[in-house]
Amino acid sequence: MTFPNAPSAVRGGLILALAAGFAAAQTPATTFSIDYKAQTISDLDGGSLVAITEGDILRPTRPHGIPRVAPVGTPTIYISSGPSGLRLLGDTGGRGHPEGVHAALEVDGLSYGFDGPVQDVPPPGTFWFSVDKLSFGIQNPNPAIVPEVWTEGPDPAGPNGMEACGDLFLDLGMPSPPVCPTAGYIGNVGAIDGNGAPGASGFAYPGLGLIEPNPMVQSMPPADDGDNLDAADLDELGLNVPGGLVYFSLDATFNAPTGLGSAAANGFAGGDVLTTVPGSGVINLFAAAPQLGLDLVTGVPDTDDLDALAVWENGNGVFDPSMSPFDWLSGGHDMVLFSVRPGSPVVGMPASNCGGAPIEPGDILTTPIAGSAISPYPAIFVAAEALGLRTFRTHFFEGDDLDALDVLIAPFFDCEGNGVEDALDILFGGLADSNANGVPDGCGFTYCTAKTNSDGCLPFLSTSGLASVTNPNPYRVVGNDMVVGQAGFFIYGSKKANLNFFGGKLCVKSPFRRWYPPKVASSVTSYTCPTKSQTGRILRNFNTYIQSGTDPFLTAGRVVTMQLWQRDPNDPFGVGLTDGLRFEIQP
Fold it and tell me: Which of 372, 398, 526 is nearest to 134 (CA)?
């Protein structure tokens, strides 16, 4: 993983270290928000049992916030909209309001300032996004059997999934931006699901714990019958560095059915980018709407609504607007990518590039091109059509709305460890996904619940590679956040379990086998345990064991379930237990 031309040597080194740590531990985490109409609003979160609001930043209720194939419980509040978090004024009296009731709390965009930065030749899977529930998508002209906005969206001509608004999709590979509307369809593939369970389209992939489907026609309007993911960021790096800044945007008043929008209620405009250190009680203006080319059509604040956000900040804490794409790679400018909500006056206005193409709610936009003779409005960075979204300018009916955005320069799920996103490996690389769960066969997925050890850490399993009877490459099974210096061994079988066992859960059904010899946990830096900076890691290559012939049970096509037990002298039972792992051995 590299960050060529990183803006600051110090900052770049810090990000490299953090990113490397996350990659080594394979602990991707997802944080997100939902809108005020969502069915999950006012439900008790899966962690502290606090009522969820549309201003809360959520994460999956899973160890370290890692999405997984269903079942996934109600999300957990990661950053509250209240005094301990963003400190939005609407939180007082608004928390616990029923879904569909406006409380001036909506968070529209989310970033930790480490998105990308986008390179001049972005690899496939750079742009991750979600859409609203009225977004249909464009059908792939050369359809593959994969989830995309079209299959998960509400179009009756398609599979009528009604689930796209809870999902996250990624691009299939863009030319060097700006990608103007003339580029045409390039496409997308689903990688993170709302609930992690198969919908009407039949596809399932690792989920967030949201409610799906979300039908266009509600049973009890204005509340929805499902959830709309409204902002997202696919890492938590921002809270693990000095300052812990959160970058976010709030809702413009024109979207508020009653009273002020969440931006105006807190003294800002819906087109502003804001920052705060959670719990500080201070919200600062990072980038004002006019600096982004917004609120210029009317000249009146709070008329355009920034609806999705990705930020790479150059390290000085001051907004240095990009003058043209990729000037952020030299270190003198900040990358701010965003979209706007339907109804914003800037929709339909000429972009400051792409020949003045009219701006659409599905476009990924960036700051205006300096000195543009076309317009003072935002520049198109990636056109909606290229992402597989409809636009009025091309399709002559209402365009789709891109309402959550993140930028990654390294894979989020990379089971094979080849630097390619798993969803893209399934689509282009020939990796089998016979059960259509978004996880390549042989890579494995986790289940069951780990037991908190005596260090206060929640140990967990991760993998890299493919389990195989012939592949010479390793299939690494890793126990993370273990007790340093204590021995542990793996057990494996053919079926899952979830039984009370030594103060935790036994995740492998008996009869099971022991994978000997035990191995002592070495000390490594941890980015996932809240109580320890150094934790134990046990790493073994299961392909070596498979191919040794020690166990004739381990043949191609065999489903394996696995768990790691560890000695933990300071635990009341003396035993540490990870979560479970399930995978299928490939030829």
Answer: 398
Question: Is residue 567 situated within a structural domain?
Answer: yes
Please count the CA atoms within 13 angstroms of the CA of 291 that sit on its side-chain side. 17
**Percentage of the chain exceeding pLDDT 90:** 71
- Edge-to-edge strands of the sheet including 284-287? 107-111, 246-250, 273-276, 284-287
Count CB-CB contacts under 10 A for residue 430: 8
Give the chain's domain count.
2
Tens-place pLDDT, residues 407-440: 998 888 887 778 889 899 888 877 788 777 788 8
Query: What amino acid is encoded at 270 in this protein?
Result: G
DSSP output for 146-158:
S--HHHHS--TTT
Instruction: Please tell me whether residues 376 and 459 are part of one structural domain.
Output: no
354 and 308 together in one domain: yes
Do 379 and 506 share a structural domain? Answer: no
414, 457: one domain: no
- Dihedrals φ, ψ of 403, to 5°? -120, 10
Query: On the CB side of 171, how many CA atoms lie within 13 Å of its CA?
Result: 28
Using 70 as the pLDDT threshold, list the residues of the chain that sit under it.
Answer: 1-28, 63-64, 143-145, 155-160, 236-243
Q: Where in the sequence is the domain holding 544, given as residue range(s)?
A: 441-584
- 470 and 395: one domain? no
pTM of the model: 0.85
How high is the pLDDT of residue 22?
31
Q: What span, in angstroms and rounded, lies between the C-alpha atoms of 583 and 464?
A: 12
Residues 281 and 410 in one domain: yes
Examine the domain organization and report whether 187 and 322 are in the same domain: yes
Query: Is 221 a domain residue?
Result: yes
- What are the tens digits of pLDDT across the range 33-60? 999 999 999 999 988 899 999 999 999 9
Residue type for 113, please?
Answer: G
Please count the residues of the chain.
Answer: 587
User: Per-residue DSSP letters for 271-294?
Assistant: T-EEEE-TTS---EEEE-GGGGT-
SS3 content of the chain, % helix, strand, coil (to 5): 15, 25, 60
Task: Report yes or no on 522 lying in a domain.
Answer: yes
